[in-house]
Specification:
five-stranded parallel sheet, 41% helix, 12 strands, alpha/beta, 225 residues
Length: 225
Amino acid sequence: MHILLLEDDKKAARLLAQGLQEEGFAVDVAHTAEEAAARIGPECDLAIFDWMLPGMDGTEFCRQLRREGVDLPILMLTARDAVSDRVEGLNTGADDYLTKPFAFEELLARVHALLRRPRRMPATRMQIADLDIDLVTHQVKRGEIRLDLTQKEYAVLLLLARHAGQVVSRQQLAQHVWHADLIAIDNLMDVHIKNLRRKINLDGQPPLIETVRGQGFRFIREASD
């Protein structure tokens, strides 16, 4: 089971992630809503959001995800324990609400309870323009031609495709695909983007990935000649 943990306190995030990992969960940690948005995908089984965050807070991020149709189970964490706060947290679309400080055993029990709830079957394919991505086998085709991508190239493509039409920053790519700071892998990223473009931009086909100078990269939702 894969958990996305959104917590801006890095020490608290590290300790909570360690506890969940010791219970057998795979944990992906984000410190802002922007980082978390880049990491939400079909592999996620549950999310744990802190309410108070820099920029967009956990409740507004939860509202945004529900507006976008994301049905990921969400557990909200907060030090705000008034009844009105609990009501507000649940009304944003969170599935459960836990006040701080809390016992790890209670959080774990709530996680297991949320994971037992039935969910709609996740999508197994993604189709954008003439590109087909099989989310189960990781097979990628452009038209009828199968593309031979490395694991990193597939991860880069999937992140860009999930945000088709939107700019994905180099920092987002660095954190989501390499789990590293941009400075550490800046040149490596350029190599992977170049190789990915070479593989998906078949002869006679319009390009699918564009560079937005000074911002990052964007997957073109509707390819055109």
